[in-house]
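Question: does this match?
>
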Amino acid sequence: MNILIVDDSRTIRKMLSDTLEAVGHTVCQAEDGIDALDALEKFSPEIIITDLNMPRMDGLELVKKLRHINTTKFLPILFLTTEGSSEMKEKGRQAGATGWLVKPFDRSRLLNTIERVSL
C-alpha cells in the first residue's frame, strides 16, 4: 500500500517509514502540508498520515485541502500528533480526518489502524 507521511520531524518520518516499509508498504515523506501537496504530483497514496502542528501549512489545513482534490477526496487520512484533546480531535473530524493516533505511536496500534481504515 502507498502511504504518504507528513511530519516536520525527520525522526518521526524515519520511524514511521521504517515501521511501514518493514511490513511491505511503500512510503513517501513530506515535511509539511505544502510539501505533501507537491508530493501528490508524483506519488499516489492510498492512505495519508499527517502531523497536526507543522510550519507553512498545518495538518488541519492540509486535510481540508485534500478533501477538495479528486484523487484524495475519499482517502483515509490519519492524524498522528501529540495533541490528544477531544476539542482537537473534533476539529480533525470536521476537517475530514478518518482517525487520530497520539505520539509516541505504538507500532501494532498504528498497523492495526491502517489495516482497519483501508478496508
Remarks:
- The first strand starts at residue 2 and ends at 6.
